[in-house]
Amino acid sequence: MPEGEEKICAVCGDRATGYHFHVMTCEGCKGFFRRSISKGVCFTCPFTRNCTITKAKRRQCQACRLQKCLAVGMRKDSKVPPGRALGWAGASAVQGSRLARHRAGLVPCSGSWLAGP
Amino acid sequence: MPEGEEKICAVCGDRATGYHFHVMTCEGCKGFFRRSISKGVCFTCPFTRNCTITKAKRRQCQACRLQKCLAVGMRKDSKVPPGRALGWAGASAVQGSRLARHRAGLVPCSGSWLAGP
DNA sequence: TGCGGTTCACAAAGTTCA
DNA sequence: TGAACTTTGTGAACCGCA
Ligand SMILES: [Zn+2]
Ligand SMILES: [Zn+2]
Ligand SMILES: [Zn+2]
Ligand SMILES: [Zn+2]
Question: pTM to 2 decimals?
Answer without folding.
Answer: 0.77
